[in-house]
């Protein structure tokens, strides 16, 4: 175990985490991209050194994506989309550094819980995750989409309009079951569908640039003005106040991370939606509320631990990062699967230790990243906004080296600007865009399996549980109110009769 503290392991490990802060802080450069860039370097390292570098990169990149989300309203990574809602609102109130301090420590605690659950329940939880088929994944997607009704502030109808628009956009491209192009209009670039990252950068980032262009009086002001001095006691007291939210979000993140293909971005949105639903002050979500910052960040870092459960136990990647990791492990001559616990128990224990220690390293490295970005963003907006536009263009182009993705970003920037002017919320559109393919593909494949019968979608045990949870989330409050009203009427009738 002491091997992980040797310089040959520590140096690439820490350098990888610093690299992750840099990549996560640049909009459009994802954790998957950062890990993919690091794999060729790890080829020349010992297996545990390479795996430590990869785990460190993924942890810090997921966190660092929240830095531009908070300061610039541009999610640095897909899993940072939910961080925009309350994080940016806190930054506008002069509490951006507090938001990111909560983010950093919330990510650390969530990551520690995620890896602790990985150590304790990897075998049984992975076995449960493998029971999910197309039928269960369909309802999981529907449950995630139901969060659009929860996270919407203002008109619920406008929230559903936004979610429907996201689902509609998600249908663009080649039909996965028939191979027929839909809504491509003869454009080969649209055959692959709309890429999520350029769309998200446009909706949140470019729309903010357009919003600044409409307010020229703000051009000379600093982009971020921190009015609040950070206090460790203040941050820890807030975290302690919302300890139940952290624990719940971390468990949700680990569970969703353990489902192959779900990932940290879905975990963050589901944790945010449930956090709002179960909060004592749901009306404060979206206005710069600390609980709204803590819930998604605890979930997305915990999801990293969850993704390792199917990867280690069954050799099935939980997300794109662990897919790359499995390739790297095979490159090292290691074969993930049930036998790895018997054949390489020492390596497995080292992976667990690296996951735990990476979360602790992230506190110091993440704090330096926060300070660096906070100094940069004291520069006036007329300098920062062109830089935001430049980073957005680079981030959109870098995904596929396609100029078409830059056009997608600009179109969605205009769409986001117009939607906000019309008070139509953006998060439900993002949810529809993320979950649309998951819902449609699993519905259609499930129907093909059953010859068009919907019975298995309802009668399978896990499906039934998910349906009950879905109904409770959407209509639980109304059902309780109706029940109380009917109970009150019956009591009144009883009193009259007596």
Element-level helix/strand string: HHHHHHHHEEHHHHHHHHHHHHH
- Percent of residues in helices: over 70%
Number of helices, counting only DSSP H or I runs of 4 residues or more: 21
Total beta strand runs? 2
Strand order of the largest sheet: 1-2
Biggest β-sheet strands, sense, barrel: 2 strands, antiparallel
Oligomer: single chain
Structural class by secondary-structure content: mainly alpha
Distance between the termini: 76 Å
> What percentage of the residues does DSSP assign to strands (E)?
under 5%
Strand and helix map with partners:
Blueprint lengths: L6 H18 L6 H12 L4 H18 L1 H6 L11 H10 L3 H34 L4 H18 L4 H15 L2 E2 L6 E2 L13 H18 L18 H10 L1 H15 L5 H16 L11 H25 L5 H12 L8 H4 L1 H32 L4 H20 L2 H19 L5 H24 L4 H5 L1 H37 L1
Antiparallel strand pairs: 1-2
Helix pairs in contact: 1-3, 1-16, 2-3, 2-14, 3-13, 3-14, 3-16, 5-6, 5-13, 6-10, 6-11, 6-13, 6-16, 7-12, 7-19, 7-21, 8-19, 9-17, 9-18, 11-12, 11-13, 12-13, 17-18
Can you offer a commentary on this structure?
The protein has helices at 7-24, 31-42, 47-64, 66-71, 83-92, 96-129, 134-151, 156-170, 196-213, 232-241, 243-257, 263-278, 290-314, 320-331, 340-343, 345-376, 381-400, 403-421, 427-450, 455-459, 461-497, and strands spanning 173-174, 181-182. The chain is mostly helical and 498 residues long. It folds into 2 domains: 2-446, no CATH class; 460-498. A two-stranded antiparallel sheet has the order 1-2.
